[in-house]
RNA sequence: GCACCGUUAGCUAAGCUGGAUAUAGCGUCGGUCUACGGAACCGAAGGCCAGGAGUUCGAAUCUCUUACGGUGCACCA
């Protein structure tokens, strides 16, 4: 039930729609004052009365009913207390009824949202910097599906560029099949790094030649490339599986090789292409941007050219309602340029493209550098988190049966949650101390809370949840209930702002409220209807927390 | 130099379209040790919300400006 709207409908203010009034309704800082409040300062001019008088006038006018229990005026605020029992019964029965779909909606029915995320580079292992796009995109993918959209996950593979010529060149000089098969992607990456550090002028030239061979369909060069690609995909699949990440498309940059010429032709035809210093560009000076490079002076295509082709291809293929690019903010200008060029080409859907930018990861002693070997591999972080979880479990709950599975859920959960808990735009300094901390505002805290709740429910045995309880919720119960009732709104807000962190913070906040309830209100020791009521509330909390963590790709063990 | 982003307690951060004494976690100090699971709970200390100006009845929130930090600015992706 939408309480703000309900309240707004009871109020008649000249010149204001119900929607506007509903939007003006806020939540008081202290529950003692009320559950909802309408600040009346804005209306002072309109009604030619002081805010205090206005609030008092409304307080006297508005009747209480089954939903609004109390209306009061305080310092120019009109405060509402809602019927707690009503909210309680509604929320509990709704969560019971909707179960794992509680919080979902059909708001996006019939709409396609393309989400470009993770987008691995062939021959490069995942380091900690790749975590954000992967896990943010994965969460958005689930959130949009949850809201009824048809989400299309796209892994726009970085499989095009002169670096693959370099890689093949390095392999031909220094590598061999056995070493690469044994060492996997790291062995491949080492070859590339060695090339960057040691390659002679001669080899640089050779590398350019190899790249040309790939482009021209040379069998040996392509076989090698495909082999490296296979190794990379096998490697990332393992990581994706653990992070609960999936894609619907793995079309990489190379796929667009033959789709760029039509774009270039169209740009030319529309008079957007101009020559500058030998290169073909779209001049964006009128929009305060540097030009968008379409073709190099040697005629080769560029990053932007492929992104233009890809955007058009995606629109034609999926007819998306919007398309998200989950890419670090370093690419701000690039996407602004690409979107603007599409707009200038007359693609009215250019407005439906969004760059979901996020902050960068650095290490405590500066930024990462693969070449210098200053890098934190994602799999190492995952391993260490799982190991730590395992050792804590072994210590605290040695009798637990599936320790490995539980440690996986807890450890990987901590990795994911660490990347999703803060606003995505903020930079992150990676430290093992932080990811390995399982206290306080963490996924582990939420999972622990769930385990507690599950344990209580197991001990209680079967019980039948009623539609209505003859119970007036106490303060702790009511705070928890309000949080549970808030979940659908939180999910919608997270989608609107492209901020999975809203869901992460919601989970911690709700877990905190459950723990206060858990400490102050004994569940199993309560008797009769109260006991059942508290069990129902516990069950509802567990259900909602599972949904919340599930959206982030984090599992909830029954015991830990 | 220009553009965009950030700056809130010792540290890491919340704070939605401006609203009633600015929230948490970590760390510190002190409690809850008969636990429905202590990976928890309670309490305390800790803040001129980077500085300045403006708009407003009211600003952490909006505008301008300064400082500091980050990122980007043509043939890499």
Q: Oligomerization state of this entry?
A: single chain
Mean pLDDT across residues: 94
The percent of residues in helical segments reads: 40-55%
Count of the separate structural domains:
3
Summarize the structure.
This protein is 54% helix and 10% strand. It has helices at residues 3-10, 18-24, 43-47, 51-61, 84-98, 131-146, 162-174, 177-198, 201-215, 219-243, 260-269, 303-318, 332-344, 378-396, 403-420, 432-435, 443-460, 475-497, 501-520, 528-552; strands at 36-39, 68-74, 77-82, 112-116, 150-154, 273-276, 279-282, 292-295, 322-328, 353-358, 361-363, 428-430.
Q: What brief labels describe this structure?
A:
560 residues, alpha/beta, Gyrase A, domain 2, Rossmann fold, Isoleucyl-tRNA Synthetase, Domain 1, 3 domains, four-stranded parallel β-sheet, three-stranded antiparallel β-sheet, 54% helix, globular, RNA-binding
Please describe what this structure looks like:
With 560 residues, this protein is α/β, with parallel strands linked by helices. The protein folds into 3 domains: 3-82, Gyrase A, domain 2; 112-256 and 309-363, Rossmann fold, CATH 3.40.50; 378-552, Orthogonal Bundle (Isoleucyl-tRNA Synthetase, Domain 1), CATH 1.10.730.10. 54% of the residues lie in helices and 10% in strands. It is built from 20 helices and 12 strands. A 4-stranded parallel β-sheet has the order 5-4-9-10, sandwiched between helices. It has a 3-stranded antiparallel β-sheet with strand order 1-3-2. Helix 5 (84-98) packs across helix 18 (475-497), helix 17 packs across helix 19 (501-520) and helix 18 packs parallel to helix 20 (528-552). The relative contact order is 0.11. It binds one RNA strand of 77 nucleotides through strand 7, strand 8, helix 13, helix 17 and helix 19.
């Amino acid at each position: 039930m939408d309480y703000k709207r309900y309240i707004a409908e009871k109020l008649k203010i000249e010149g204001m729609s119900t929607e506007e009034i509903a939007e003006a309704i806020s939540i008081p800082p202290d529950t003692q004052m009320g559950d909802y409040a309408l600040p009346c300062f804005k209306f002072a001019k309109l009604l030619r009365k002081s805010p205090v008088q206005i609030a008092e006038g409304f307080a006297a006018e508005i009747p209480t009913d089954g939903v609004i229990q109390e209306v009061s005026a305080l310092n120019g605020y009109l405060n509402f207390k809602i019927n707690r029992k009503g909210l309680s019964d509604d929320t509990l029965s709704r969560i019971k009824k909707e179960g794992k779909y509680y919080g979902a909606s059909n708001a996006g029915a019939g709409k396609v949202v393309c989400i470009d995320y993770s987008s691995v580079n062939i021959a490069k292992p995942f380091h900690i910097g790749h975590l954000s796009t992967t896990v943010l995109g994965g969460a958005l993918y689930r959130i949009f599906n949850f809201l009824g959209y048809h989400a299309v996950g796209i892994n726009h593979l970085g499989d095009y560029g002169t670096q693959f010529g370099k890689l093949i060149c390095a392999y031909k000089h220094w590598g061999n099949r056995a070493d690469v098969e044994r060492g996997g992607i790291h062995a491949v990456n080492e070859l590339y790094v060695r090339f960057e550090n040691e390659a002679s002028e001669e080899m640089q030239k050779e590398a350019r030649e190899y790249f040309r061979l790939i482009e021209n369909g040379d069998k040996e060069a392509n076989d090698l490339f495909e082999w490296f690609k296979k190794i990379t995909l096998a490697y990332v699949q393992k990581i994706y599986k653990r992070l609960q990440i999936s894609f619907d498309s793995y079309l990489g940059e190379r796929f667009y090789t033959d789709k760029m010429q039509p774009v270039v032709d169209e740009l030319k035809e529309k008079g957007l292409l101009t020559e500058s210093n030998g290169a073909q560009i779209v001049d964006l000076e009128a929009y305060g941007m540097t030009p968008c490079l379409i073709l190099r002076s040697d005629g080769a295509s560029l990053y932007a050219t492929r992104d233009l082709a890809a955007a058009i291809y995606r629109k034609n293929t999926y007819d998306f309602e919007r398309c998200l690019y989950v890419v670090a903010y370093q690419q701000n200008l690039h996407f602004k340029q690409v979107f603007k060029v599409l707009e200038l080409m007359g693609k009215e859907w250019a407005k439906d493209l969004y760059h979901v930018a996020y902050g960068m990861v650095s290490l405590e002693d500066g930024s990462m550098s693969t070449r210098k070997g200053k890098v934190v591999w994602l799999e190492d972080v995952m391993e260490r988190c799982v190991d730590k979880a395992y050792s804590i479990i072994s210590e605290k709950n040695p009798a637990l049966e599936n320790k490995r599975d539980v440690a996986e859920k807890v450890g990987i959960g901590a990795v994911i949650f660490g990347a999703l808990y803060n606003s995505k735009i903020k930079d992150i300094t990676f430290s093992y101390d932080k990811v390995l901390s399982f206290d306080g505002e963490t996924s582990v805290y939420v999972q622990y809370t769930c385990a507690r709740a599950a344990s209580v429910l197991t001990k209680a045995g079967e019980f039948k949840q009623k539609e209505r309880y003859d119970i007036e919720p106490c303060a702790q119960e009511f705070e928890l209930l309000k949080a549970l009732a808030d979940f659908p709104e939180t999910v919608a807000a997270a989608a609107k702002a492209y901020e999975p962190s809203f869901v992460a913070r919601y989970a911690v906040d709700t877990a905190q409220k459950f723990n206060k309830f858990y400490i102050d209100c004994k569940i199993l020791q309560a008797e009769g209807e109260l006991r059942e009521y508290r069990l129902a509330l516990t069950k509802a909390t567990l259900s909602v927390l599972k949904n919340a963590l599930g959206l982030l790709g984090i599992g909830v063990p029954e015991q830990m």
